[in-house]
Amino acid sequence: MIAVRWTWRGVLLPTALLLLALLLLWQLTLLARIWWWRDHAPGATAFMEVRADQRATDGRGPLAAHPWVPYGRIPVVLKRAVVASEDARFLGHEGFDWQGMQDALRKDIRRGQLVAGGSTITQQLAKNLFLSERRSLPRKLEEALIALMLERLWGKRRILEVYLNVIEWGDGVFGCEAAARHYYGVGVEHIGPEQAARLAAMIPSPRFFDRHLRSRALARRTATVLARMPSAAVP
């Protein structure tokens, strides 16, 4: 009994406190970066760095340039299309769409596997900025904490602005300006409703749709997004 007690007090407890301190320091680091990005454009995100490394390994060259576009220059049709496609209750939740999560869980139960999404725009942005594609409980918990920070420090307008400027939209293509130029050869402010709906429809599988632009699945998703756009509320 004495040996066990000594081990806990002498080794396990200090180790646990050190890990807790490191975890707290990491969270404070994330908080500081999020606070700074309230008024400054983020540089390369975690997803961008992963894709850049993959392309370098494969010898495919760097990522496409991804110029920053201020919120006011991003067309309303694209904002509506993305909200309609990815997070219809964007303005009404505080980072988590509980109804969407329940719907996704029911779909997973019917299919017998974890497939459906349910992540909000805020959660997707948290993952893109700091995390990875790997699915695990610790990563989902970290995503939730970051999403809470984003909602508290930024607000909906800034979240949507950064989201549209950093998410992946194709093979080596990040951000709405790069996407508009890659697919349509114009600046993002010149795209119309159908083009916006198509870009939004690509978000769940951007690299796949980049290679299959004429797929029936993309056409169906585009039509669905286009029909939902008039009712999508944006900040």
Q: What is the strand and helix layout of this fold?
A:
Layout: H1 2-36, H2 46-58, H3 76-86, H4 98-111, H5 121-130, H6 137-153, H7 156-166, E1 168-170, E2 173-174, H8 176-184, H9 193-202, H10 206-211, H11 216-228
Antiparallel strand pairs: 1-2
Helix pairs in contact: 1-6, 3-9, 3-11, 5-6, 5-7, 9-11
Account of the 3D structure:
The model has no long low-confidence stretch (mean pLDDT 87). Strand 1 (168-170) and strand 2 form a beta hairpin. The protein folds into two domains: 1-36; 44-231, Penicillin binding protein transpeptidase fold, CATH 1.10.3810. The longest helix is centred in the N-terminal third of the chain and has 35 residues, at 2-36. Strands 1-2 form a two-stranded antiparallel sheet. It has 235 residues and is mostly helical. The chain starts with a helix and ends in a 7-residue tail after the last helix. Helix 3 (76-86) runs parallel beside helix 9 (193-202). It has helices spanning 2-36, 46-58, 76-86, 98-111, 121-130, 137-153, 156-166, 176-184, 193-202, 206-211, 216-228; strands spanning 168-170, 173-174.
